[in-house]
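Exercise 4. Each item below gives a protein and its sequence. For each, produce the structure-token representation.

Item: NAD-binding protein (Streptomyces genisteinicus).
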Amino acid sequence: MEFTTVGVVGAGVMGVGVAQNLAQTGHQVILVDVSEEVLDNARRELRTSLRAFALFNRAAAVDPAAVIEKIEFTTDYELLAKADFVVENVTEDWSIKEKVYEQLDRILRPEVRIAVNTSAISITRVGSVTGRPQNIVGMHFMNPVPMKPMVEVIRGHHTTPETIDTARRFLAGMGKECIVVEDVPGFVSNRVLMLTINEAVFLVQDGVSTPTDVDRIFKTCFDHKMGPLETADLIGLDTILKSVEVLYESFNDSKYRPAPLLKKMVAAGLLGRKSGEGFFSYR
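Answer:
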């Protein structure tokens, strides 16, 4: 296997999904986060996710204990020195990401590629804080990671064709295909999706419709599996808000201004599935 050991930085929803997918496809995984509390929660989330994967994929033989055994949970970034490839999944906050990349650039071998799992942060900007901008590539995984066959891959200004080829092989080893796009804020998927979700929040805020009926229109009229507000709850309203704010700051275009209701819900701790309540209740 070309990528025997893979570092996964960030043990939130996306990091756990990436780690699970990698372990299920035979990779040794080093899952790093800043606290034991976060890692303990990641173990619980992983067990729940593996049970759900087995339930919806009865044909696939999944041994949850064997999958978890392939993942090393740690707060020690130095262990990433043995990684052949790294997928970074920390929160969409530049001040946090910048410090993470300074560490990764110091610890990783020079030839190691780093995938930025982001929905909005510029890949070129990430590359600029490292000594290896040619080895930085964007990978926008969709949630839940093990269930989604396609990944949006983003080419930064300095990303080389060799790094794009490496990214394709890496994703093929996870059982996934990719679509390569250029590095603009929001890329393709989030530039459309975040605008749609934000406008759906405005519709609820303005009393035009209820969350249930907004989503029913998309599911019954357009045959979407999920409506925009159910999708927002799945992604996390805090993540949605950060992504919309990045788009607003990047384009200086008022069409991306965050809905006040979205800000209010995040301030109230109504983050969607992860908190048990968002536009819908999960308790």
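Check: The radius of gyration is 19 Å.
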